[in-house]
Amino acid sequence: MRWKLKEEINPEIVAHLQEVLKVDYVIAKLLVQRGISTFDEARSFFRPSLEELHNPFLMKDMDKAIDRISKAIAANERIMIFGDYDVDGTTSVAMLASFFKSFYPYVDTYIPDRYNEGYGISHLGIEEAFKNDVKLIVSIDCGIKSIGEIDYASELGIDFIVCDHHLPGETLPNACAVLDPKREDCHYPFKELCGCGVGFKLMQAWLEYYKKPLDLITPYLDLVATAIVADVVPMVGENRILTYFGLDVINSSPRPGLKALLSSYKQEHFSISDIVYKISPKINAAGRLEHGKYAVSLLSTNCIETANKLADYILEINSERKHLDQRITEQALQMIVENKEVFNKSTVVYNPNWHKGVIGIVASRLIETYYRPTIVFTDSGDHLAASARSVKNFDVYQAIKACSEYLIQFGGHKYAAGLTLYKDQFEAFKEKFEKVVSESLNESDLIPELVIDAEVDFSVLNPKMIRVLRQFEPFGSGNEKPLFISSNVYDTGGKRYIGNRDEHLYLYVKQRGNLDRSFPVLGFHFGKFYKELDNRRFFNFVYTVEESHWKGSIRTQLFMKDMQLV
């Protein structure tokens, strides 16, 4: 990997913050790097408060949304909550439906079938609403570009409220209210909410309008935190506040569905990483291989027995997902080698038999091996469907948009997108996409980069500093876990392999000049360096500081990201 130290910042600002906070210089430096330079800003960072959430009525059309829902309830109209099949969509639907059902009985839910309907508002969903005499649909995590579908609903006498966080097109849908902080005419102070976050603001507005305490919706923060982490929205501002308190709910009083998903893990405390690796893939698996409605049912139920049965079913689905993901990734890697596509600046692969539900995961896996903007295609009826993933600082959505003349439809974000095209357009699209990528990226962009926060000696890593580091959580985009570099370290003699194929490395290290302090180091995929570290061979390495929970005890260990032999 390429190692890059963050640019030096004004040492006077760092020294001032160090003095007022009474912390180590490195801690003050980390804070300033995150845009925090005063005591009050630091207090808000370390002690998030729900009182700091913005007034939800600052969001454009929020008053209209509350008014239309109020009229629906007053008239005993049926309301449908309509969402996407991924984590953000299913948590959103479960959250909004559970909230409104707590005081109003006529609430339905709808998740489109990934294969029969695809992403977003569907005619099938609208027709299901019409058949069930639904008069109001609240879409969540989708709808901002569903112009024709919402017009169709209007023709059937069904109103829409759109709650979305994706970039709008040139025209907004003709809905009663369009809640999207990314609207150009919306002056809501925080633009980076996920879909579930927008739904939470709707609930917050409802409570404020009817003068109810905010405590009534804090139990839903476990779902909001799960969505924020899964959707990889920036972990700053309101997202960080909501995740901070959401993690508290997950650890103190999680809903039965989340509790059931986590029941097999013998842990007392769950973190952001646990949401990423132990919750999100399982929730996603339902929509990838079966149907997102199972995830909504799991996350909505208040019955432990029902939750356990649904969780068992979803775990079976996830097991199948892992098998498919592994097999298809191996096939794709073989295809890249045979076609020598690694010499391109993009990776575009296609197999008509690959499962549509896992091609996004496969794209991410391919980037782990060949660090390039990647698109994985498979058959979808008469068309080809694809999932795209990107590398750092490359906007794959805009690159796909530049090839839109070949596409039926597309959508997504900077680092992840989906698209469909006619089969006879595949080669032309592939050629154009490679051209767009090649014009934007140079060779160095195709080497993963580690942006390092600070170079530190082991003497700095004292217990007090490590305690303060833990208070930087929750980590995520925009508040990444601090990366450190330390030089001239060596194994003290206790290194060992970890894993069935001696793939990983575990060692205890000391640093030349700081012999009184040693740390355990875990290095995934660094087993190949085992022999080279004999005889106290010095090396420099980049790492994060982690907590290791084992048999009721907590200790500090360093997680190796990269190393260089000296």
UniProtKB/TrEMBL annotation:
GO molecular function: 5'-3' exonuclease activity; nucleic acid binding
Family per similarity comment: Belongs to the RecJ family.
Keyword Hydrolase carried by entry: yes
Protein name as catalogued: Single-stranded-DNA-specific exonuclease RecJ
SUPFAM superfamilies with a match to the protein in the record: DHH phosphoesterases
Keyword Transcription part of the UniProt annotation: no
Keyword field: Exonuclease, Hydrolase, Nuclease
GO biological process, one term: DNA recombination
Domain DHHA1 span(s) in chain numbering: 348-439
Cross-referenced Pfam families: DHH, DHHA1, RecJ_OB
Residue ranges annotated for the DDH domain, each copy included: 78-228
Signal peptide: none
Gene3D superfamilies in alphabetical order: 3.10.310.30, 3.90.1640.30
Residue stretches making up the RecJ OB domain: 452-562
Domain of life (superkingdom): Bacteria
